Known about the structure:
448 residues, PmbA/TldD fold, 2 domains, six-stranded antiparallel beta sheet, five-stranded mixed β-barrel, 36% strand, Microcin-processing peptidase 1, metallopeptidase activity, TldD/PmbA_sf, TldD/PmbA_N
Amino acid sequence: MLDQTQAKDRVAALIERARRAGADAADAVYSGSASESVQVRLGALEDVERSESEHLDLRVFVGRRSASIGSSDLSDAALEELASRAVAMARAAPEDPYAGLAPEERLFRGPFPDLDLADPTEPSPHRLRELALAAEDAARAIPGVTNSEGGSASASTRSFALATSHGFVGASGGTGRAISATVVAGEGASMQRDYDWRSAHHAADLPSPEMIGTQAGERAVRRLGPGRVKSGPMPVVFDPRVGGSLVGHLIGAMSGSAITRRASFLLDRDGQQVFSPGIGIVDDPLLPRGLSSRAFDGEGLPTARRNLVEDGRITGWLMDSAAARQLGAEPTGHAVRGHGGAPGVSPSNVHLEPGTVSVAELIADIADGVLVTELIGSGVNGVTGDYSRGASGYRIVGGEVAGPVAEFTIAGNLIDMFRQLSPANDLEWHRSVNVPTLRIDGMTVAGE
């Protein structure tokens, strides 16, 4: 895998090849990664896996025509052919009036901030095995745990570089460290499984493997003997590990490309009150050690902290340059690049700001409701906002969390759900989308 200096040199050289081949403009992306993981099960080593990958992607413009092509062969001969083929493809493509690079005057000129995304200490395979075993041992030690699907630990490194023909060259990189455990409680038809998993850039930011394993085991045991919930309208409370998906649906609907296609349930709601007053959702790409932190976006524009929702109101769409041109607006620094094709759009480190009440206070007046800890399926319509998903979790009776329940469905419409959303004060900070416990009144629950 190339280091950041080598990666910048390689994408800059690919841009020059594209210009020599006849491109009017171009951008190139390098992405490289290396990872090692160790899996154990029932106290024995089950798998050790090592993977490495490198990829170069080139996007060229000939007038308003464009084409994208990629290769995992980084040799000079392969890249010469890559550039020539890309230009030939672009010349045969249809014109797109919105195609083009990001505005030159808005490119990030530096200096690049140090976001502290790289752990200088790389764990050995032996250390990864120790961590995986410790997590699984702690989970299996919980009374009621009867089997294990394994413990794992992994370490990874990534490198990314972007160059454009109109003056941007930048690189970023980081490391990843992760630990997980998944176990089974109970016997026969009454078995239940659950897990815990954590990841961070730095090993020091992870909880201990024993804590992760204990959480996994306790969760599995707590799910034993699930009952059924009666159907009807009732309050639904979302645990933080599933509540972030609601923010994910909102972000998908805020994409500029969804707005241009008129395929968003937020269409024509820019600036409108979508949540209750006081609700805020923040995107912070410059958070040190944040899982999705980045100084520049996939088009070379600077990133910045932004309130996506402010006092309950949508503050605008997330746009790359093509969507911004189509909407007569400015790109927002949210472009991201994958393998091949034009940029997509994504936020970075997102959190829904906590409320002022504890979880106990949030549910104290719920006579009959459900706490959702797992969601199943993907029954969400991004155009209408209609929402229906399978779920499991726990009953809430008389303001207290009661026994486990399973095999029920929760349904509503996201616009109505957002209006009814109330947060507790227990915001967690270890995911890309971080939320506290969330309560939504008036959802339809279908059980027995």
